[in-house]
């Protein structure tokens, strides 16, 4: 149906975005990126196209373990532009706040802003343990061990998946150890 819609109206933003999201879900990041770029070109205010375009860019940098350690500056800049536009157009949509904070974490920039972004995402979507988990990562990067411990304890108490529980427990242990190894003032 989406291909037929695009045959009739190739620049239809919603159809390009929907097919782009479908391709992203199928793991075809290159095709998704092209479709999402077309969706944005025909409608800059398509916040879902903006968000999923940034998501596609972020997935380009994932390793085989589905983890990202950093982003090239040009990719980070494009993601930030798309995510800021998504937030501007749809401030009640929590996903771009999380991804923007994660981009900042991966590039080790704007960490204070990232805390505010994640707090906003959590306020919009209470109970999203994945948002709290990223918040704890940012807090740990800032060496705010007390806040990271409290956030991780909330994640663990929130009945996360076994994988997230294990990751949160390991991060909590790391936070405790790093805090203990800090020089006394």
Q: Key features?
A:
74% helix; 185 residues; 0% strand; mainly alpha
Describe the structure.
With 185 residues, the protein is an all-alpha fold. The protein is built from 10 helices and no strands. It starts with a helix and ends in a 5-residue tail after the last helix.
What portion of the residues fall into strands of 2 or more residues?
under 5%
Distance between the termini: 65 Å
User: How many beta-strand segments?
Assistant: 0
Helix fraction? over 70%
Shape, principal axes of CA atoms: elongated
Q: Which secondary-structure class do the elements indicate?
A: mainly alpha
Number of helices: 10
Chain-wise SSE layout:
Layout: H1 2-8, H2 13-25, H3 29-42, H4 47-60, H5 73-89, H6 95-107, H7 111-124, H8 129-141, H9 145-157, H10 162-180
Helix pairs in contact: 1-2, 2-3, 2-4, 3-4, 4-5, 4-6, 5-6, 6-7, 6-8, 7-8, 8-9, 8-10, 9-10
């Amino acid at each position: 149906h989406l291909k037929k819609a695009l045959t009739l109206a190739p620049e239809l933003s919603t159809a390009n975005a929907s097919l782009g999201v479908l391709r992203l879900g199928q793991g075809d990041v290159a095709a998704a990126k092209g479709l999402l770029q077309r969706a944005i070109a025909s409608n800059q205010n398509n916040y879902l196209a903006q968000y999923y375009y940034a998501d596609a860019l972020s997935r380009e940098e994932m390793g085989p373990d589905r983890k990202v350690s950093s982003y090239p500056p040009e990719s980070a800049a494009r993601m930030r532009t798309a995510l800021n536009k998504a937030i501007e157009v749809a401030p009640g949509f929590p996903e771009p706040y999380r991804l923007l904070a994660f981009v900042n974490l991966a590039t080790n920039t704007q960490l204070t802003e990232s805390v505010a972004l994640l707090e906003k995402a959590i306020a919009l979507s209470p109970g999203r343990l994945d948002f709290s988990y990223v918040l704890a990562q940012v807090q740990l990067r800032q060496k705010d061990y007390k806040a990271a411990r409290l956030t991780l304890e909330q994640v663990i108490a929130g009945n996360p998946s076994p994988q997230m529980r294990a990751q949160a427990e390991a991060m909590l242990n790391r936070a405790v150890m790093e805090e203990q190894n800090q020089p006394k003032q």
